[in-house]
UniProtKB/TrEMBL annotation:
This is proline dehydrogenase. Its EC number is 1.5.5.2. Pathway: Amino-acid degradation; L-proline degradation into L-glutamate; L-glutamate from L-proline: step 1/2. It is an enzyme of class 1 (oxidoreductase). Residues 45-301 form the Proline dehydrogenase domain.
Length: 308
């Protein structure tokens, strides 16, 4: 299985240097990351929303080693919010954040991450939109959920992400499927040990369906993060069975993957949100996109060969 190998490479400085230096890399990265600056990505925001789609925006970057870098990440999101404000898109353009960017892994990281993310969440609410806390590796989740709970006291629409491949997630889903909650369910894209996570695709898929049923039957707002046609079909059936209207859940997919499906779901009346990342520190995000789907890796490999 290449997925675990690629995920290991995403942590390798040597691989980072090798791939970053390859002439073809930028062309391929552009498929998944449409820009490095706010100025570059805002036209994409307007294009996607003009086509009936919604967005969740991610300023990429996870290798934070100083409090100053964490503060810079906070400021990058505040700049984005300031630039979104005059577009008056409301929840059609929300944000996703990784708490590692806000200093979670540093000394005193839980308090530091909370202090840095709070003004972002409050500023987003001030322009009529919201923030979702992305899930990272399993060692960070207790802190993430605690920060999520704290933020929801003042900004209850703050969302969070759960990962189907982790054994703990079914219990987390039951706790989170409450009125007012917003929960994105994904399969999971970090290399996790067998002690805490399913390793086989069929096991992950079955867990995904069980967890999604819990969310659909709950009182919160489920966000289906998947490109898998079978899981999308199952999600629609679970929503019908639960008596949910089309605006009582949404689909989320990555920018650059299955764009035709984005438009098809939106045309059918579904809320379809495109996870759109931008920024200069793209390496870790890019490598996880390759690991998630063999077709992404084949696309990259073909591009490397054709340009070699």
């Amino acid at each position: 299985m290449l997925g675990p190998v690629i995920l290991a490479a995403s942590r390798s400085d040597r691989m980072r240097r090798l791939i970053s230096a390859a002439p073809v890399t930028k062309q391929v990265v552009d498929r998944f990351i449409p820009g490095e600056t706010v100025d570059e990505v805002l036209p994409i925001v307007q294009e996607l929303t003009g086509n009936g789609l919604e967005l969740t925006m991610d300023v990429v970057g996870e290798d934070i080693t100083t409090p100053e870098q964490a503060a810079a990440a906070r400021d990058a999101y505040l700049e984005l919010i300031g630039r979104l404000k005059p577009l008056e898109l409301g929840t059609r353009a929300e944000m996703s954040v990784k708490l590692s960017m806000f200093g979670q892994a540093l000394e005193g990281g839980h308090e530091l991450a909370l202090a840095n993310v709070r003004p972002v969440v409050e500023a987003a609410a001030g322009i009529g939109t919201t923030v979702t806390l992305d899930a990272e590796d399993h060692t960070t989740l207790d802190s993430m959920f605690a920060i999520h709970e704290e933020l929801r006291k003042d900004v209850p629409q703050t969302g969070c992400v759960i990962q189907a491949y982790l054994f703990r997630t079914e219990e987390d889903a039951r706790r989170l499927a409450a009125a007012g909650s917003r929960v994105r369910l994904v399969k999971g894209a970090y290399k996790e040990p067998a002690e805490v996570a399913y390793q086989q695709k069929h096991e992950i898929d079955k867990a995904y369906v069980r967890i999604l049923r819990t969310l659909m039957e709950g009182e919160g707002y489920p966000m289906i993060g998947s490109h898998d046609p079978r899981l999308i079909s199952i999600a629609q059936e679970l929503a019908r069975t639960a008596g949910r209207k089309l605006d009582e859940y949404e689909f989320q997919m990555l920018y650059g993957i299955r764009g035709d499906e984005h438009l098809r779901l939106a045309a059918e009346g579904h809320r379809m949100r495109v996870y759109t990342a931008y920024g200069t520190d793209w390496y870790g995000y890019f490598m996880r996109r390759l690991a998630e789907k063999p077709a992404n890796l084949r696309f990259f490999a073909r591009s490397m060969i054709s340009r070699g």
